[in-house]
Amino acid sequence: MKKQPIKSAKAAESASGKPAPPKKSTDLKKSAPELTNDKTDDLAGNTESGAGERMTTNHGVGINDDQNSLKAGDRGATLLEDFILREKITHFDHERIPERIVHARGAGAHGVFKVYEPMSAVTRAQFLNDTSVETPVFVRFSTVAGSRGSSDLARDVRGFAVKFYTQEGNFDLVGNNMPVFFIQDAMKFPDLIHAVKPEPDNEIPQAASAHDTFWDFISLMPESTHMILWAMSDRAIPRSYRMMEGFGVHTFRFVNAEGKASFVKFHWKPLLGVHSVAWDEAQKISGKDPDFHRRDLWDAIESGAFPEWEFGVQIVPEEDEFKFDFDLLDPTKLIPEELVPVQRIGKLTLNRNPDNFFAETEQVAFHVGHVVPGIDFSNDPLMQGRLFSYTDTQLIRLGGPNFHEIPINRPVVPVHNNQRDGFMRQTINRGKTSYGPNSLSDNAPLQVKAADGGFTSYAERVDARKIRARSKSFLEHFSQARLFFQSQSDAEKAHIIDAFRFELGKVKTVAIRERMLGILAQVDKDLATPVALGLGLSLPETPVQLNHSVPADADPADYASVNEESAVSVSTALSMAGTIKDSIKTRKIAFLTADGVNAGSLTTVKNALEAEGAVVEIIAPRLGVIEPEDGAAITVDQSFLTAASVLYDAVYVPGGINSSATLEADADAVHFLNEAFRHCKAIAADESAIQVIDATYFAKKIPSEFTNETALTEGVYIGGDAAELAAIFSKMIALHRFWEREKPMKVPA
Ligand code: HDE
């Protein structure tokens, strides 16, 4: 029997007795198409909008006066008897639950997943075999270190957690946007998080790793070197959640119907490519719009521009387990795509925003241990610890053992077992038996044969002594950090060097900076030397002793870091330079305008960019409308006060003699352009707006005439023909950024 959700008044009234259809796509969302699947149907029984309804207490009594408390006379005192006031205030007093200890700040969305081809050769998981099935999903993206109210643009790892509501139960893929992790053993996770969180005496800094305790820990943990290179790269400051890769990080197992297992690494590949912002820009966005990523995800879905990822797998046959120069169980290592290609096996589409942040995004509870038949664990010691942590944390965060009944968490298939009771139990279990074996209910609920979808754990052979130790195969810490660094473009390398200079520059204890340089020197001198220069320090002459985290009775030699060369010297998949750059879909373009703008050029360029899916906003010195030199008044979307260049991907200045004169003299407009240039964005202007460009710093930096030839290398174009300009500008925007001009042409902004 299907579980009975609590029904809203509307649903309860429905003639069929079935839950009412989801309200979200019909009455609340403007452009999202009608969308139903097993999960929306399931959630529908718990949704309500209150629109046009009578106001009641939580116990259904109509409320006559929601403005005044009950008093002895109109000047008080308030009476304890006022059950309506007491209920309202009490509920309010208890509205908050503890935020997640990590990944507290996040944004979620609903979607669907579909596999391209049956994967029966490697897994029996039904949702990876039936190409006709659209599996509902809920995804939550997050930062790691900051509190719920912190900025989206912190330099940080991003969580990428996907809950698949499959017909065989829920499968959670709780990944990150980086393929490796800081530590190799779950034992060190509380230490890592204590080190990165704000310092305990003064709770400073918020959502930032640039402080002593974090780098103290990292500099003592050579196993974190590979991950720290990723964290200092632009991957840690994504342009959008929609433009991030995702990784399961650990090696998992696939198991097919014959019981044969393969190792598998999971990937998400965004169809819009992998893109980032500049660090200076990230810091400014944190002030101008701390909800930048959350808003971006929400707006894209609302406008029908549904974010998409392909699901990728790297499959390693069990017999190849020891064929690599690293241990597959070591979560600080990735499998270079050159060694095992990523097969793209399906597509994830996010197509519906949550109805309620708290009920869905905050209450969703992911767990690495939520697997379905055909997917199993490996012995990665980090993963093994996670298998404990996730349910444990929900018990305190969501207040008890029944969080699986919260609508966003419950599966779309019925739940039957002998577990009972506990805080906030929703299910009304009928009958006398809550144990098995039993004869009174014919032994129900009945165990499920493997052939009918019962989960059976992979029968891995284990024959070992109990031992607390680190495998020797985990001691090589630098080869993949070097592989990562050497696979980056020059601009990406420069950003990593700057990030280390920034972060270590914020560290007050010089010995920590020095120790970190000792680690970087093991990775690559081309990295360590400029970082040392920026810190005003010199590199240590001899490699420093790197075996700090050693058990009390162990021989340090057994823990000494090893530094070898990776079998692969460059892996193009690790760089973002070669990512997809053929689309301007959802890119935000600022049009700088004023009274007297040329409506012809403005409209031609606007229509052309919008036709390709870009989002254009008209920015002017003030809100309201601007009067063009030709045609009807144009509505202004933002003033220079509410807009900022860091919130856009590209800038265009349409023609118009009078508007150009106004903008040329407007410091905010000129600053807007200078800042966009500093952050390496595409900039275009009509010929008759050349004076606005001439007022910028970068006009003096670029010697060329901003022609077709240089537009795609320098990212600045000025043209007289609006249609031609739009075509070139679009190609420039698709390139995302012109990082090459960053260092040689830096301008004040
Ligand atoms: Fe998590 N992690 N984690 N983690 N993690 C949590 O669970 C933990 C790790 C990840 O949007 C917590 O429900 C341990 C790796 C994501 O709700 C907690 C260890 C990866 C999210 C927890 C790790 C992740 C979490 C906090 C080391 C990438 C957010 C709240 C042994 C593969 C999920 C919660 C969401 C959340 C524990 C390491 C990803 C405390 C002990 C590696 C995306 O249970």
Explain the overall architecture.
By secondary structure, this protein is an alpha/beta fold. The protein contains 22 helices and 18 strands. The strands form three sheets. Strands 1, 2, 3, 4, 5, 6, 7, 8, 9 and 10 form a ten-stranded antiparallel beta sheet that branches. A six-stranded parallel beta sheet has the order 15-12-11-16-17-18, sandwiched between helices. Strand 13 and strand 14 form a beta hairpin. Helix 5 runs antiparallel to helix 6, helix 6 packs across helix 14 and helix 7 runs parallel beside helix 12. The longest helix has 17 residues. The N and C termini lie far apart (64 Å). The N terminus is likely disordered. The structure holds CIS-heme D hydroxychlorin gamma-spirolactone 17R, 18S.
Index terms:
749 residues, alpha/beta, Catalase HpII,  Chain A, domain 1, Hemocyanin, N-terminal domain, Rossmann fold, 3 domains, ten-stranded antiparallel sheet, six-stranded parallel sheet, binds CIS-heme D hydroxychlorin gamma-spirolactone 17R, 18S
Describe the structure concisely.
It is built from 22 helices and 18 strands.
CATH fold description of the largest domain: Catalase HpII,  Chain A, domain 1
CATH architecture descriptor name of the largest domain = Beta Barrel
From the alpha-carbon coordinates, what is the Rg to the nearest angstrom?
29 Å
Number of helical runs? 22
EC number: 1.11.1.6
Organism: Hufsiella ginkgonis
Biased composition (Polar residues): 55-70
Region (Disordered): 1-71
